[in-house]
Amino acid sequence: MAESGKGRGGNPGTGKGLSPEQVVSRFNRLRQDQRGLASKAAELELELNEHSLVIETLREVDPTRKCFRMVGGVLVERTVKEVLPALESNKEQISKLIEALAQQLQAKGRELNEFRERHNIRLVGEEEPKGPPRDGPEGGKGGSTGVLVS
């Protein structure tokens, strides 16, 4: 009697049969996820630049010279020759993490664009898409069935 994926009882993960409120909510969640990834990537870029600057500075210093390093919120005293390899290793790990975040960000952007196209979502201030009319036998739906999101 009941068909799966249609009406309000459908699975929100499939993207079919969602109410306009559910579409807007899911779209805003996807946008928020994308912003979070971009924010984390920017934060890690700053940390990578900071590591690079410290590594450049320490390479010009005597390896037996004392230096201080924050480890888990505790300031510890070490020598440059002990700290430099750890910093370089951290820098490599941060670079790999930034690459992974960039891939996740691209995937999230594709998912967001697909969701926008699937549900005909337009942002406030965005013009009506200029393409073939969606009504008639080819389109199947009227042209004004989209969702407007601020």
Description:
The chain is α+β, with helices and mostly antiparallel strands and 150 residues long. Helices cover 53% and strands 12% of the residues. The chain has helices at residues 20-59, 80-119; strands at 66-71, 74-79, 121-123, 147-149. The strands form 2 sheets. Strands 1-2 form a two-stranded antiparallel ribbon. Strands 3-4 form a two-stranded parallel ribbon. The protein is rod-shaped and about 65 Å long.
Helix-strand sequence: HEEHEE
Largest sheet properties:
2 strands, antiparallel
The average pLDDT value, as a whole number, equals 83
Unreliable spans are 1-12, 135-144
| Helix content estimate | 40-55%
In terms of structural class, how would the helical and strand content be classed?
alpha+beta
Instruction: Report the portion of residues in β strands.
Output: 5-15%
- Which strand order spans the largest sheet, edge to edge or round the barrel? 1-2
Summarize this entry quickly.
The chain is 53% helix and 12% strand. It has helices spanning 20-59, 80-119; strands spanning 66-71, 74-79, 121-123, 147-149. It has a two-stranded antiparallel sheet with strand order 1-2.
SSE blueprint:
Layout: H1 20-59, E1 66-71, E2 74-79, H2 80-119, E3 121-123, E4 147-149
Parallel strand pairs: 3-4
Antiparallel strand pairs: 1-2
Helix pairs in contact: 1-2
